[in-house]
Every structure is written in structure tokens, then in C-alpha cells.
């Protein structure tokens, strides 16, 4: 009985060992990894500082990029603002430039208007002082002496014969006629005149009829020395002004700038302008054997004379601007 029990016990122990062995194998089989799958290895502690450094660098790079983007954005905004300011300033500058141009135009127009008004006023003052032929009526109110001294005579159609004028003027010289200083006082020119002293102002020109007698070429050089040219009669206005200046008691004629280069050639002024037959006629003495290629004016008429003869010089020059600062001065 005991042997049977012992045998049974041994069998149970053997079964228990077998069961434990199977359980151990099953547990081992369960824990064994499948083929093709390796167990992940834990990172080595040596790579941790490197990873930390890389992370730090990436963070710095991101922060730098963000800062750079912010700076660029601010610069872009500033650039746009400056561009807008520049555009506004350019627009203002353009407006100011247009306003300045408009003001300059207005200033020029006002200056022209002022010049015309001043010139008209100065002409009136000039005429009142006897500086122009058109003031003849006022001069005659002071007697014939003023007309003679100031070079103011009636128009060509009403001018008496020189001999009659000589006869009429003789009593004045013996019956207490004004002295030369008194005549100068009657005939002074207003200080606003744009012409030099003792020059006559007419239109936009100044004229001077000298007492010096020279040849035609001599008068040409003389006028050039006076910064002027010889007398040119090319308009009706100049004709009406110049011809009365040629009346003389002693037949003193004046050279003009009209001449020709030989008999039968065209009459030309010094600047090359042609002579107009409609203005005045040139009286030519065809019986004379001498050349008569230069023109003088005497007693309201034009004559062709020998250029070598001695005649008085008549010069003209462009008038300057009216002296505005002297308009207020008394006559």
C-alpha cells in the first residue's frame, strides 16, 4: 500500500515537473520577440548634450528669423510712409511751382502794365516840358522863341517859308528876346525821359540833331561813337517828327542814313532796308556832274547830295526804359 502510494506520489511529482516545465517554456515562448522585430534601444546619454545644443541653435535661429521679419516689416512700413511723404511733398512742390509760375506771370503783366502807364505819364510830362514836337501848341503859348529854341515847329503843310520865318524872328532878337539860360529853363526835359540829356524822345527811339558839320561817312562814324546810328525815316510817324527838325534859317541840312552805291542803284538805309517812295520823294539834280548818292533833309524835303559835302549829323538810338523813380519829381 505504501509502495502504491509512493508510486502515485512520484507520478504526481513527475506530472508537476512536467507541468512546470511546460509552463516555463510557454512563458519563455511568450516573452521571446517575434522574428524581424528588435527591441528598441534606449538612447545613449552622450547624445543628449548634442541634441540640446541643436535645439538651442534652432531656437536661436527661429528667434533671429522672427526678429529679422519684424525689422523687415517695420522697414517696409517706414519705406511706405516715407514714400507717401515724398509723394505729398512732390505734390506740394508742384503746386508751389505752379503758384510761383502764376505769380511770376502776374508780376510780369503788372510790370508791363506799370511800364505802359509810366511811359504814358512820362510822355505827358515830357510833352509839357517842350521835349516833343507834339507840345508845339504849349510852346507857342510862350512865344515863337520857345518853339525855335526847343526845335518845335508846325507840321510840314503849315510851316511858312524860311525867309518869312527869318523876317518874323528878327524883331525878337532886338526887342528883348529871352536869353539862352531862360530858353533852356523853358525847354528842359523831364527827368523821367528814357533818352540821354539833350536827346529828343519820339516813339521808341531817341534822336539828336547835332550842329557839327561832317561828310556823310564822317557822320556815320560820329553817330557810331555816340552809340547810335544815322537817322532812318521809314515810317510816317518818324517822317512827321524828323522833317520839322530840318527847317533852318541858314539852310543847314542834315545827313540821313539813306544812300546808294552809284547812280542808278537802289536807295538803301544803313541796315539794308529799302527806301519807300510812298513816304517822301528824293529831289535829284540830274544836271550836276558830281555823284549825288547820299540824302539830306532840309526844310521838310529830301535831297540827294555829294557824300563828301559837309552837312550836319542826325543820329538815332533805341530809347531806354522810363525812369520810374523820377516820375514824382516836379516839372
TrEMBL record:
Keywords: Coiled coil, Disulfide bond, Glycoprotein, Lectin, Membrane, Transmembrane, Transmembrane helix. Residues 202-316 form the C-type lectin domain. Residues 23-44 are annotated as: Disordered. GO terms for cellular component: plasma membrane. One of its GO terms (molecular function) is transmembrane signaling receptor activity. It comes from the Eukaryota. InterPro entries: C-type_lectin-like (IPR001304), C-type_lectin-like/link_sf (IPR016186), C-type_Lectin_Domain_Fam1 (IPR052309), CTDL_fold (IPR016187), NKR-like_CTLD (IPR033992). PROSITE patterns: C_TYPE_LECTIN_2. SMART domains: CLECT. Gene3D superfamilies: Mannose-Binding Protein A, subunit A. It is a single-pass membrane protein. It is found in: Membrane. Residues 79-120 form a coiled coil. The chain crosses the membrane at residues 50-76. One of its GO terms (biological process) is signal transduction. This is C-type lectin domain family 1 member A isoform X1. The lineage of its organism: Eukaryota, Metazoa, Chordata, Craniata, Vertebrata.
